[in-house]
Task: inverse folding
C-alpha cells in the first residue's frame, strides 16, 4: 500500500522546499507536487525531514557488573518517539572473547529492534585472532571499530594496541572510533579521591577533568595520523578535546567530533545536588561540564568543527545506580537520551537561532549517514532512499517527564525541560511507528544495515614511515663491545 506525505515542507541538510513525498515498498519513490497514493499523511504546517540517526547507543550492554536497562525494543521505541529512526550500537566483546562470537550475541539481542540498526565493533583486547577477525567483521558490514582509552583493567586498550588496530583499520578501509579519556590518570585520581574520603557522585566529575579528555583526544589523533586513518572521537564534551579536533582538521586531517545532547544542555552543577540519587543518575563518562565547555560545543556545531549530535544512551535504573553508594567508582556510568535528543536539540538549537533547520538535519542525521557510509540510503529525502522520515510539528510541545517516556528507567535527566517541536509522525521504512503520542512501533521490524568499507583515501601528515624506513648507515669505525 502506497502512502503520500502531503502538504509539508521538506527540510534536508542542504535545502528547504515545499513538496509531497510518496512512499512504496519502504522506499521513497517520488517527490513532487500533488502526488496521490492509497493513504495520505497530512503534513500541513510540518517539516518533513530524514529520520534521526543516533550513532552512539548502548542497549542491553553488560557493563560495570550489570546490564544497561533499555534493550533493543525499549531503546528503539524511545528513539522513534523522538524522531530517531536508526541507532548504531556497540558490540562489546569481553577481553579474550572472539569478535564473531560477540557479534552473534548482539545479533540475537537486536532481533527485538523496532527500528533499523547497525553496530560498531569494540576492540577491547589485542591478538592475532582479533587482527584476523577484523577482516571478517568488515565483510559482515561493520566498518567502524571502537577503542576505549579509559576503563583501565576492563575495556581499556593501551597505545600499542590502539596503534596496531588503527593500522589494521587503515588496511581494511574501516574507521576507528575512540572514547578519549586518559584511563591511567582517571584511575589514579579515583584512588586519591576515595582515599581522601570523597566517595560521592560529585567525585566522579572530579576524577575526570577536561584535561584527561583533551590529552587522550590529542594522542588518538596523532596515532591515527601515524596509522594513516581518519578518526571519530565519540562524546566530545570539552573545549580541550574540541580544540584538538579543530587543530587536526585545520591541518587537513579527517577527524570527526560527536557532542552529546546531554553535554550541550546539562552542566556539572548536577553533581552538587544534595540528593545522592539525583547526582548519581547523572554520572556518565565523560561527566557533564561547565558552561564554557557547552559554549565551545555549540560553537563547534555551528562552525562545522563538530559534526554529529548523539546520546551515548546507556540507561540504568535507580537501583542499578545505587550499586555505587559509598564508592562513586561503582556507579554504573551512563544516562539516557534517545527519546529527547531531537526535541531538545530543536528547542535549544533551532528555536534559539543557534542552528538552522538544515544544520539540525545535518547533525542529527545526514552527516553521520555520510561518515558511516550509508548515505543516501539513510539520512536523505531522495527517490530510492529508505522511507525513514520524521514529520516534524514545530508547534507541538511538551514538558519532558519520566512519567510518559518509553525508556524503562524511573527518571529522566531532562526532567522538567519544555520542548517545542515534536514528531507528528515517525516512519521507519515507510511504516508509521509514531502518530503524535500513539506508539505503533513493532518489535522485530528493525533490520540490520550493512555498511561497506571506505576507499582508503587518507594521506598521513606524519612522515614517520619515510623518516624511519630502514636506511642502514654503513659505518667504518664500530667500537668493540664487551671489553
Ligand atoms: N560512558 C558512559 O557513560 N556509559 C557507557 C560507556 C561510556 O563510555
Ligand atoms: Zn551478561
Ligand atoms: Zn564512551
Ligand atoms: Zn558510549
Result:
Amino acid at each position: 500500500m502506497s502512502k503520500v506525505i502531503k502538504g509539508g515542507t521538506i527540510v534536508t541538510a542542504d535545502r528547504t522546499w515545499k513538496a509531497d513525498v510518496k512512499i512504496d515498498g519502504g522506499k521513497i519513490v517520488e517527490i513532487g507536487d500533488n502526488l496521490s497514493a492509497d493513504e495520505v499523511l497530512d503534513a500541513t504546517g510540518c517539516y518533513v525531514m530524514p529520520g534521526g540517526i543516533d550513532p552512539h547507543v548502548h542497549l542491553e550492554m553488560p557493563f560495570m557488573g550489570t546490564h544497561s536497562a533499555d534493550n533493543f525494543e525499549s531503546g528503539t521505541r524511545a528513539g522513534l518517539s523522538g524522531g530517531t529512526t536508526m541507532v548504531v550500537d556497540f558490540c562489546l566483546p569481553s577481553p579474550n572473547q572472539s569478535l564473531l562470537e560477540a557479534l552473534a550475541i548482539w545479533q540475537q539481542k537486536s532481533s527485538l529492534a523496532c527500528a533499523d540498526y547497525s553496530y560498531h565493533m569494540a576492540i577491547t583486547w589485542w591478538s592475532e585472532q582479533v587482527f584476523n577477525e577484523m577482516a571478517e567483521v568488515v565483510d559482515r558490514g561493520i566498518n567502524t571499530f571502537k577503542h576505549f582509552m579509559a576503563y583501565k583493567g576492563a575495556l581499556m586498550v593501551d597505545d600499542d594496541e590502539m596503534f596496531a588496530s588503527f593500522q589494521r583499520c587503515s588496511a581494511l578501509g574501516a574507521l576507528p572510533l575512540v572514547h578519549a579519556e586518559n584511563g591511567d590518570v582517571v584511575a589514579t585520581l579515583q584512588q586519591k579521591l576515595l582515599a581522601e574520603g570523597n566517595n560521592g557522585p560529585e567525585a566522579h566529575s572530579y576524577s575526570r577533568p577536561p584535561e584527561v579528555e583533551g590529552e587522550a583526544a590529542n594522542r588518538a589523533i596523532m596515532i591515527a595520523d601515524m596509522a594513516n586513518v581518519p578518526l571519530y572521537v565519540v562524546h566530545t564534551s570539552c573545549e580541550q578535546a574540541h580544540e584538538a579536533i579543530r587543530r587536526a582538521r585545520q591541518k587537513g586531517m579527517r577527524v570527526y567530533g560527536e557532542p552529546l545532547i546531554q553535554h550541550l544542555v546539562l552542566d556539572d552543577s548536577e553533581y552538587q545536588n544534595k540528593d545522592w540519587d539525583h547526582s548519581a543518575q547523572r554520572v556518565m563518562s565523560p561527566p557533564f561540564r561547565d558552561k564554557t565547555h557547552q559554549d565551545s560545543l555549540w560553537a563547534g556545531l555551528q562552525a562545522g568543527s563538530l559534526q554529529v549530535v548523539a546520546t551515548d544512551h546507556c540507561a540504568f535504573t535507580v537501583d542499578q545506580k545505587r550499586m555505587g553508594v559509598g564508592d562513586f567508582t561503582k556507579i554504573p556510568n551512563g544516562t539516557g537520551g534517545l527519546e529527547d535528543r531531537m526535541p531538545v536539540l530543536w528547542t535549544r538549537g533551532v528555536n534559539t537561532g543557534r542552528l538552522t533547520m538544515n544544520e539540525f538535519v545535518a547533525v542529527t542525521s545526514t552527516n553521520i549517514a555520510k561518515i558511516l557510509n550509508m548515505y543516501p540510503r539513510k539520512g536523505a529525502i531522495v527517490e530510492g532512499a529508505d522511507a525513514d522520515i520524521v514529520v516534524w510539528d514545530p508547534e507541538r510541545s511538551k514538558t519532558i517527564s519520566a512519567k510518559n517516556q518509553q525508556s524503562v528507567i524511573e527518571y529522566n535527566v531532562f526532567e522538567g525541560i519544555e520542548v517545542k517541536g515534536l514528531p507528528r509522525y515517525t516512519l521507519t521504512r515507510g511504516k508509521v511507528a509514531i502518530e503524535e503520542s500513539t506508539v505503533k512501533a513493532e518489535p522485530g521490524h528493525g533490520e540490520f544495515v550493512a555498511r561497506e568499507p571506505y576507499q582508503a583515501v587518507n594521506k598521513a601528515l606524519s612522515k614517520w614511515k619515510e623518516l624511519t624506513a630502514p636506511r642502514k648507515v654503513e659505518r667504518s669505525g664500530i667500537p668493540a663491545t664487551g671489553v
